[in-house]
Amino acid sequence: MRPFSADASFLAGGAGAFVPELTLRVADTLARLRQARDVTVGCSAKRAVWSFGKTTLYEYLPLRKAARDAPQRSAARPLLICFALVNRPYVLDLQPDRSLVRRLLDAGLSVYLIDWGDPDDADRCLDLEDYVERHLGGCVRHILVSRGTSSLDLLGVCQGGVLSLCYTALHRREVANLVTLTTPVFSVLGRGFSWRDLILIAGGLFLVWKATKEIHHHVDPDHAPDVFDRGAATVSFGAVIGQILVLDMVFSVDSIITAVGMTPHVPVMVVAVVVAVGVMLFAATPLANFINANPTVVMLALGFLIMIGMTLIAEGCGAHVSKGYVYAAMTFAAAIEGLNMMSRRAQRRRAGR
Length: 353
Prior knowledge:
The protein is of the alpha/beta class. The protein has three domains: 7-38, no CATH class; 46-183, Alpha/Beta hydrolase fold, catalytic domain (Rossmann fold, 3-Layer(aba) Sandwich), CATH 3.40.50; 191-222 and 236-352, no CATH class. Helices cover 55% and strands 13% of the residues. The strands form three sheets. It has a six-stranded mixed β-sheet with strand order 1-2-6-3-7-8, with helices on both faces. A two-stranded antiparallel ribbon has the order 4-5. Strand 4 (93-95) and strand 5 (98-99) form a beta hairpin. It is elongated and about 90 Å long.
C-alpha cells in the first residue's frame, strides 16, 4: 500500500473540496516531476577506460571543432576531475551551454572524470586510504601510463577536493597543478569554510568597518583619534590608494558573483563588468559634485555599504541572501532620499521668495 497517491485526478476531486489551492499546487508539482524524468544530462560524449569496483574512469572524447588541434591536445597535460562520493558527476556536464566539461574540451584539454558509482552497504568497508590510494590513485596511474606522461592536472570538486588534497600531499610529483572548488579549508561547529567564504567574510568585514568609521566621523566631527588613527597625523597617499584598491576588489568580487548567478554566459559577464567600470570612470566628477551639493546622500551611501557588507558576511557563512531583496531595499531608500531632497529644495525656494 502506498502512503501517498500520485493520482492527479484524485487530488483534483474529493480532496480538492478541502484544500483546493494546495491540491492544485501538488498536482502541478507531480506533473513537473514526471516531465523532469525525461531531462537528458551529461551531454558530452565519453568512454570508460578503467574501473575498480564501482569506480569508473571516463575519458571525454574531443569535440569535432577541436579535432584539427589533435596534435596539441595529445601533447597537453591531461586533466582529471575528482568529484564527491555521493553526488552525481554529471552536474559538471548538464547541457551544452551549462557544461564545465565542454568548456574544458573547447580549450583543447584532455579531460577525465571519476564516477564513484552509487553508494551501498559495501562502502562501509572502505576507508580514506582505499579512496585515495586505490581508487583515485588507480585512476591517476592509468592516465599517466596510457598517456605516457609523468604528471597531470587534478581538479577536485567539493568532497573530491579533500581527496585530491590528500593524494597530492602523498604524490606531489604526479600532480602538476591542483585546483579545488568549494572545498572547505577548515570547519567550525560542523560548518565548512572555503576560500570563497573567507574572501566574502573578509570583504564584508572591511566594508562594515569602513562604513562605520566614516559614519562616526560624520556624526562626531570633533572626535578623538580612534585605535586606527593613533600614531598617524595624516593619511599617507599609499594608504588612500590601498583602501581604494580594496574597495574596488570587494565590489568587483560581489559584482562577478552576482553576474555568475544571473547568467551562464561568460561574454555577458565580461561586458557587464567593463561597462560598469566605464560608467564609474566617466561619472566620477558629476557624482562628486552631486554629493557635495547633497551631503545627506553620503550617509545613505554609507548605510548601503553596511548592508552590502552584512550581505557578504551572510553569504560567506552559508546564508544565501537574494540580490533582489538587497537592490529593492536600496532602491526604496534612494527613492525616499530623493523625496527628501525635493522637499528641501521646495523649502529653500519658499524661503527665498
